[in-house]
Amino acid sequence: MTYLADDKRYDTMKYRRLGKSGLLLPAISLGLWHNFGDVDNYINMKNMVTKAFDLGITHFDLANNYGPNPGSAEKNFGRILKEELMPYRDELIISSKAGYTMWPGPYGDHGSKKYLVSSLDQSLNRLGLDYVDIFYHHRPDPDTNLEESLMTLDLMVRQGKALYVGLSNYNAEQTAKAVEIFKELRTPFVIHQPRYNMFDRWVEDGLLDVLEDAGAGSIAFVPLAQGVLTNKYLKGIPEDSRANNPTAALKVKDITEEKLEKVRKLNELAAERGQSLAQMSIVWVLRDRVTSALIGASKVEQIVENVKALDHMEFTAEELKRIEEILK
Ligand code: NDP
């Protein structure tokens, strides 16, 4: 049966302005790094994407290399678009990236014009789109002149293959340099995508200030520390969890007793707030200047639970203090 989006999809989601740009993003966005590859169940991914959209998640984040195999997440999302979501294309913000290894040889990685141009063309082909809404350089390339990478992003906008551009994994200093170049070129640099969660807070040491000065916004990736900042690992390693998946990035050895001790205490605090820990972890990253929390999911129910986080976004000073003490 043809998918019809829920009429109420815009009733509860919160939309937040990306810096000083014209673009609004949902407070929660869905990333397709895991669970959307060749090895995953297509019906499950289609259900997750359509449910997300029904809940007002208008932004879906991809990259050339998401899979496995690399490219397959874009291919699968392209199929979902073709089968279900294309009538809603103008309601969607679709992003992709290039910067990590994608194909063999000297032109399939990093930040050269040769790589970035070819990669975006490949992504558009897999997605079945004429343009992406946001195109990112996925990581800084120390061996390519910054101007070359950034002028290529600018070119993509001029060619109409991307509406806006972003940077990911650039530190505060690299971002500040990039902002100067983008200003000169008048490139619509509107977003940075950094890792940010309660266990990894590097963005607080300068990056958020640089972005604020530049009038750009941010989207925090791995807000749940790949699932560790939920209650799922408190009683061991569940069979259907990312840590138990050999193709996934999270390893059992990463879930240390020291982390679990903190997770236990955070879980208690979340319960006192009337939230699950997943929900509290999401609203925590949104408490100061971050525009959107970029979650992943393996099941529809996780998306439903996570979106409910927005029912209770405020923290008392006392709660924030307790979180700081737990994380010490
Ligand atoms: P999260 O930290 O949100 O982890 C998502 C995982 O947590 C899910 O796959 C699921 O794992 C578990 N989970 C989610 N909700 C719940 C819940 N309510 N209860 C229990 N467990 C839950 O993010 P990801 O690591 O998935 O990354 C999100 C996105 O960030 C990526 O898809 C990608 O778009 C982006 N990203 C960007 C990077 C970059 O360099 N720019 C790098 C990495 C990610 P399980 O399978 O165990 O159920």
Concise synopsis of the structure shown:
The protein is globular.
Explain what you see.
The protein has helices at residues 42-54, 72-85, 113-127, 146-158, 172-185, 207-214, 257-272, 277-285, 300-307, 317-327; strands at residues 15-17, 24-26, 28-31, 59-61, 93-98, 132-137, 162-168, 189-193, 217-221, 292-295. With 328 residues, it is α/β, with parallel strands linked by helices. Strand 1 and strand 2 form a beta hairpin. The protein is globular and about 50 Å long. The chain starts with 14 loop residues before the first strand and ends with a helix. The model has no long low-confidence stretch (mean pLDDT 98). NADPH dihydro-nicotinamide-adenine-dinucleotide phosphate binds next to strand 10 and helix 9.
Provide key terms for this protein.
TIM Barrel, single chain, 328 residues, alpha/beta, binds NADPH dihydro-nicotinamide-adenine-dinucleotide phosphate, 8-stranded parallel barrel, two-stranded antiparallel ribbon
User: Would you report the number of β strands?
Assistant: 10
General shape = globular
- DSSP helix fraction: 25-40%
The total count of helices amounts to: 10
- The CATH topology comes to TIM Barrel
Q: What small molecules are bound in this structure? A: NADPH dihydro-nicotinamide-adenine-dinucleotide phosphate
Query: What about the largest sheet?
Result: 8 strands, parallel, barrel
Helix and strand element order: EEEHEHEHEHEHEHEHHEHH
Give me the side-by-side strand order of the main sheet. 3-4-5-6-7-8-9-10
CATH C-level class: Alpha Beta
Number of domains as seen in the coordinates: 1
Q: Can you tell me the residue ranges where pLDDT is under 50 for at least 5 consecutive residues?
A: none
Q: Mean pLDDT, nearest integer?
A: 98
User: CATH homologous superfamily - what is it?
Assistant: NADP-dependent oxidoreductase domain
